[in-house]
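Work Package 3 (structural annotation) set out to generate three-dimensional models for the target panel prioritized at the project kickoff. During this period the team completed the workflow that converts sequence records into discrete structure tokens, so that structures can be stored uniformly alongside our sequence database. As a representative example, we reproduce one entry of 189 residues exactly as it appears in the project archive.
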Amino acid sequence: MSYFQDALSVTIEVLVGLYLIAVILRFLFQLFRVDFHNPISQTIVKVTNPPLRLLRRFVPGLFGIDMASVVLILIVGFVKLYLLTSISGAKIAPAAIAVMSLAEILNIICWILLIAIFARAILSWIAPRSYHPAIRLLDGLSEPLLAPFRKLLPSMGGLDLSPIFAILAINLVQRLLVNPLFDLSRQLL
């Protein structure tokens, strides 16, 4: 790979990757009903709104899920890997790229949720009861994952063990779903 191809690959990886994360965050904010009046979520809405407005004309919602966001996530993930594959000069196999982009999207979702849970746990020690917009977003992202485990676990005298079990569940999703999808995409090449 030449220096130009390498620089172009890094640029695409960063710029398209950041946009993919923004679209995934918007989908997760909608799915978990995170406060859309938050300044951080308003920024993500402004960045992702133009293509979503167009897609919503053709892609209806389904059971309260914004399917236009899902379609945009899949398109951006596929385009990212397609561009990176074509720049590298490797053989382009659309089925392999589709499976790999799905695996990458699920992996990004898992990492976003893991980071939200870790950050929330650490901030609960450092800045309990803080009303910073970022902390409120972390609460909105992590609470739907932690609440079911809190219901299952007995009270531990103020010690919350639900983050441990939520992290374990996310890790299992990565090992049992994401990793096999990555392996399948490699086999399709």
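The first helix runs from residue 3 to 31.
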